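Run log // design_07
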């Protein structure tokens, strides 16, 4: 699979010295869905804006479909569709005219059949003659997606596309995203709904303070970094974990009727058999055993926390030096 988007040593700095992007390197393959996760202020929107030409880079190169976004901007930008966070639409224009106009901005010939297809996919066809100011927030966000698709882009950026959208509309949007991927469109999305990234993305990227912490296949990331938990249900609640079980570093649930054991799925031995025998020897009677895999959200929080800790330790060492 070839890379359709390549970002090399991308840096964005402002006059006050603030670095929004710090030597970002990123390659995105044709036809994949990459979820870019990061806390507020991490640089997600700045990265997207710079790739799309809204913000000029301080250093580095970006190519889309082989076209340099600086020296061959028009060719590169024609391949990109962007759904921004902000809803910025002409309030008194009709939906269908808004989408047609966006297609015309890219020099594309009028194609009413295509516009109808896009509006129907996004459940906007019955609203085609409605004015923008008559739509709900969720429907306006759908219009943004329709605008971004109107010129048939090969790369689609979705910057928090489901913010403020109800659950039903959100599900419809992801169905559309899945259909686009099936046609070969490359999709890069940012989202605060990490469960969505877990459900739909092929790869996960994590960005923090303008730096890419990792870009990894979703399944591999969860296998390598995810912990599993074994929850052992007890026949009667206990107030504290017996001293004989201290080496297992167990946690007691809030109700006191279960102990929780974390283990590495990649380890040669999990220690589960030894634990269950030790629980029995401690006089505890188990009634049920359940396992649970760490979610992507837990992995993400752990990565960001680890990076914060490393930075603090580095800062302390530099200060001490």
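design_07 sequence
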């Amino acid at each position: 699979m070839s890379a359709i988007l390549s970002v090399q040593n991308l840096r964005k700095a402002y006059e006050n010295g603030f670095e929004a992007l710090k030597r970002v390197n990123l390659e995105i393959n044709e036809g994949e869905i990459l979820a870019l996760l990061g806390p507020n202020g991490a640089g997600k929107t700045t990265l997207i804006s710079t790739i799309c030409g809204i913000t000029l880079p301080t250093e580095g190169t970006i190519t889309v479909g082989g076209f340099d976004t600086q020296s061959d901007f028009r060719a590169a930008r024609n391949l990109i569709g962007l759904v921004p966070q902000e809803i910025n639409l002409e309030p008194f224009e009709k939906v269908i005219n808004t989408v047609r106009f966006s297609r015309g901005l890219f020099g594309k010939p009028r194609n009413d059949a295509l516009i109808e297809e896009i509006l129907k996919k996004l459940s906007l066809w019955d609203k085609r003659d409605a004015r923008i100011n008559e739509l709900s927030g969720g429907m306006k966000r759908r219009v943004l997606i329709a605008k971004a698709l109107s010129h048939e882009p090969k790369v689609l950026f979705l910057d928090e596309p489901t913010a403020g959208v109800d659950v039903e509309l959100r599900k419809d949007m992801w169905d559309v995203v899945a259909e686009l991927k099936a046609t070969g469109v490359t999709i890069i999305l940012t989202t605060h709904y990490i469960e969505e990234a877990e459900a739909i993305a092929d790869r996960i990227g994590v960005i923090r303070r303008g730096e890419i912490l990792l870009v990894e296949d979703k399944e591999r990331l969860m296998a390598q970094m995810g912990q599993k938990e074994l929850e052992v249900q007890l026949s009667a609640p206990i107030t504290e974990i017996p001293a004989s079980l201290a080496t297992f570093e167990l946690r007691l649930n809030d109700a006191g009727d279960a102990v929780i054991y974390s283990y590495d799925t990649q380890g040669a031995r999990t220690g589960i058999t030894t634990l269950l025998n030790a629980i029995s020897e401690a006089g505890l009677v188990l009634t049920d055993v359940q396992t649970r895999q760490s979610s992507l959200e837990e992995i993400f929080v752990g990565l960001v926390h680890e990076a914060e800790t490393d930075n603090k330790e580095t800062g302390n060492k530099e200060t001490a030096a």
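The longest strand covers residues 3-13.
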